[in-house]
Amino acid sequence: MSDLELLTQSLARNVKRWRTERAFTLDTLAARAGVSRGMLIQIEQARTNPSLGTVVKIGDALGVSITTLLDYEQGPRVRVVPADQAVRLWHTDAGSYNRLLAGVEAPGPLEMWEWRLMPGESSPSDPHPVGTVELVHVTAGELTLTVDAVEYRVPTGASASFEANTPHTYANDGAEPMDMVMAVSVPPVH
Q1: What b/e string do you get for 99-118 counting C-beta neighbours within 10 Å, with b at 16 or more?
Q2: Under the phi-then-psi rule, with left for phi > 0, alpha for psi from -120 to 50, and beta for the rest, what region is 131?
Q3: Could you give phi then psi for residue 25, rounded to 5 degrees?
Q4: What is the structure's pLDDT at 79?
Q5: 157-174 in b/e burial notation, b at 16+ Cβ within 10 A?
Q6: How far apart, in whole angstroms, are the C-alpha atoms of residue 90 and residue 80?
Q7: What is the C-alpha separation between 102 and 106, in angstroms, rounded?
Q8: Which residue, 80, 131, 85, is CA-closest to 104?
Q9: CA dist 64 to 36, 71, 90, 102, 145, Å?
Q10: Most buried of the four, 26, 89, 96, 178, by CB within 10 Å?
Q11: Is 112 left (phi over 0), alpha (psi -120 to 50) or beta?
Q12: How far apart are CA 107 and CA 92, in angstroms?
């Protein structure tokens, strides 16, 4: 079985598990996530590979991390994630990508990501739930971070934090690849 098939099956099983645990109907989760009921059915039946944006919306609506949605089993208190098991969820033909390095529920989802954006590329993000915070640390190049239509420059070695409940975009307006590490903390669902 391919990695993509394993991820599709894990996502199917975990979306259904967390939806059931939260006592959400398909219609309730669809409304909370802004995703169609038909898409949720396809995901729960492992018949589609949804976009990263769709997985983020479902995770936010369920109050769980992407790691939890893609994980096949909850592990011990200490979980080491080998480099070859970090999950690449988004990439472009030019070489931009992000990888989910690790994540936990603490008390809400907490995720650590590795990102690379090639020159001239960007990745927009829809608003996350109120209380979501993102931290970024640029390790190479310069990040152009736009939050709620205001642009910020984050050079190599610098870090930024922001409330992510408004539209935001990561972009590389420079001439060299931009690498960053990002942490995302989402409040628990009540």
Answers
A1: bbbbbeeeebbbbbbbbbbb
A2: left
A3: -75, 170
A4: 65
A5: eeebebebeeebebbbbb
A6: 22
A7: 12
A8: 80
A9: 19, 11, 19, 13, 25
A10: 178
A11: beta
A12: 33
Cα–Cα distance for residue pair 9/46, rounded to 1 Å? 5
Beta strand ranges found along 44-158 (DSSP E): 87-91, 97-105, 109-117, 122-125, 133-140, 142-147, 150-155
Q: Tokens 């603490």 — which residue?
A: 106
**Can you give the pLDDT at residue 105?**
66
What is the CA angle 35-87-170, rounded to 5? 65
Cross-sheet strand order for the sheet of 168-171:
122-125, 168-171, 142-147, 150-155
Query: CA of 179: how far to CAs of 3, 167, 171, in Å?
Result: 25, 21, 11
Pair of tokens at residue 111:
């995720």
Query: What is the model's pLDDT at position 75?
Result: 45
